[in-house]
Queue: 2 jobs
Job 1
Amino acid sequence: MKKTTTRLADGRELIYYDSRDDVVRDAVDHRPLDPVATASEIRHDRLLGDDVAIASHRQARTYHPPADECPLCPSLGGRLSEIPAPDYDVAVFENRFPSLAGDSGRCEVVCFTSDHDASFADLTAEQAALVLEAWTDRTAELSQLPGVEQVFCFENRGEEIGVTLGHPHGQIYAYPFTTPRTERMLRSLAAHREATGGNLFDDVLADELADGRRIVLEGEHWVVFVPYAAHWPYEVHLYPKRRVPDLLALDDAARTEFPQIYLEVLRRFDRIFDEGNGRGGRAAGRGGRAAGAARTPYIAAWHQAPLRAEHRAEFALHLELFTIRRTSGKLKFLAGSESGMNVFINDVPPEAAAERLREVASES
Amino acid sequence: MKKTTTRLADGRELIYYDSRDDVVRDAVDHRPLDPVATASEIRHDRLLGDDVAIASHRQARTYHPPADECPLCPSLGGRLSEIPAPDYDVAVFENRFPSLAGDSGRCEVVCFTSDHDASFADLTAEQAALVLEAWTDRTAELSQLPGVEQVFCFENRGEEIGVTLGHPHGQIYAYPFTTPRTERMLRSLAAHREATGGNLFDDVLADELADGRRIVLEGEHWVVFVPYAAHWPYEVHLYPKRRVPDLLALDDAARTEFPQIYLEVLRRFDRIFDEGNGRGGRAAGRGGRAAGAARTPYIAAWHQAPLRAEHRAEFALHLELFTIRRTSGKLKFLAGSESGMNVFINDVPPEAAAERLREVASES
């Protein structure tokens, strides 16, 4: 793997991650860009106890551009995008419309491939491994920035959840605080340690493996299951079997196995809603997807230990992947109960979700 | 006000609230309904510490029926709906597809008016006062049910947030636990009491009134403001000036003033996204709405003290009203940061939201 760090015309960082070591990345960004003027502000809600990022400059952000104006494609034929090179493997750059900026953190865009029409699920294992390297490296780099408390690598996929750029990409948020969701896990972890002396992540994983009904896929180093109290119609959690606090601490064996596990899960996600379609009953399209089938919208969220948490070694790195689609053509909305009271209603029993996700396994 | 309690064919309760005392409600539900078979189950998430309602029977619920099959319209001309009467003022009944049922609580539907094409904002002050009476009475009744810990009256409005029945209606959830959002407020309240001896709700309200920049509307008994750390593009909180823990404790003066305050705020919400439209610059449609203008999707959520909270008298009843629309034609989605980490990104500065909501005031 070769990493090349450079700058865009307005001073933002751009980092190439290449699988070949002999690639030269010296393309210059020739766009006449104004310096980025962001006004991101973190405000504390005294009643709810959380922090909100107020980012008004984002209202002007790029919104569903036509494919030939995609800012994440390579710069080719005189068309200048965010990536000045004529091709790339994986490219990461600072978001021009960041939710977090300056003292409030940092936002980056991760382009998974230069292929505009691909999805993460279409990547080869080698390409996915390179993305994992990029996530890991960015976590290391962003952790060094002053004020950063937690690094969050994620992917939003699908117009249904508001994705405005079709090019396959994810994002990284470097928060200047520990997020409320992680705070909740840390509280549960502390209470469980107090009560039992054990590690709650380890115990939940052991219980899921012993029960078995919600296990979707098990590798040598990773296990994938639908959680007992899943909040979303189809939701899986991917845990390395050996607990580590963050991506940097993953060992080579887990790192090597991850791409095949994750790609298989993503491909299954795209088959959940194929009608009357179990094992083998589908037309093989790109990445095993039925031709013309609607891609499943999803959010993929890497949970890593906050940088300065008191018992950070007890935290368990894991990936939470879920879709907001509850059945073919119907979405799960966060309405009164979820948004008003933070109580989730899930119409798909976790055991049924796990069964479906086993049913649509790839042929091997 | 006259209240009449009866039963639907499958045993569910139906309650009429009429403004006239001489109305007779003796219509019988003649539908051949099977008994409601629900399988709602509450599951505890050990890591997040919250409870999820798993309600698989809801997948079959009524989904965007044509207007002439609306289950919330009165029963007329041989067409039998959920309300057997040929007309009604306000009607409340147990949901046939409840998220919470049996030991897990209860879900009710509140029909605001028999007029299928109206919105809450179209109601007269008298009609809105009747809805307030219904909310108050249902809170009292549901609080008596065994196992109920918190009563939540709310309205989801708009297809954009997943509303599948166009008829103007709200819902009431009687939860068998204190909701996570309320827990957070109670925690902040306790910490503030400990630190200052004061009441956090009172202090926040006093600070908003003193600052003034986010005040949208002030009556004699109610004040409406955009919170300092608003989570949603347009979000307002309505507080009675005299703090009370729940709807039952509202005094007559606040009760009497509420309809005009709330109706005005709802009408302003429908005008937020009218292009180039300030005070008086619009065609007057129904309820003051510009003819043909898109109605603003919103969630309106009544926050009431949990029934058995330790310091419940310290809680402040209030209504939180917010829209997921961030600009004309664009929605705010809860994607990676919000759904993955519970960190909200808000693209509209609260002061700008308040200014817009003052700008679109009704002429008086």
Job 2
Amino acid sequence: MAGFKHLVIVKFKEDVVVEDILKGMQKLVSDIDAVKSFEWGQDIEGEEMLRQGFTHAFLMTFEDKQGYTAFVGHPCHVEFSATFSTAIDKIVLLDFPSVVVKAAT
Amino acid sequence: MAGFKHLVIVKFKEDVVVEDILKGMQKLVSDIDAVKSFEWGQDIEGEEMLRQGFTHAFLMTFEDKQGYTAFVGHPCHVEFSATFSTAIDKIVLLDFPSVVVKAAT
């Protein structure tokens, strides 16, 4: 779906248990209605030169910018972010209205 | 949709006409059947510290890894990549099987 996207790519610190982070994230998107869809993935075979140490991508979709703003200010997100930020070695965030050029059929 | 994702985030060089790049990309995904969906966006208001200079995200979805491999080796992609790489200041690529935690309804 189009909508407003919140894209996070990260490299976790070495001692981080990614499963624990994922559990927290699953709870987060389940608790917050404004999150319309959530998917993630781990690059397990890309070229190191091109992924530059980043390993995980997380993509959330909101109906619109207002939905995203509601998510950011939600107490569950504020709490989760505090934990998440301690687990991160590198991070890039991009937030944007999505332009769908070719839609899944 | 789930499937196999090809995620590209970039910072273009200053003199690049992004519309021209986008036109090439639209033709590419239109010409290559293996690309099941394609969306992109430009972060126009994120915090600079968090997006670290990156401005655009491009996300393609393939049915599976084989579809992605077919795309990478397609002559149109090879040709496009040569042009694309000259327009890039910074880039991160992540390729991964997508895990859908919350599906769009």
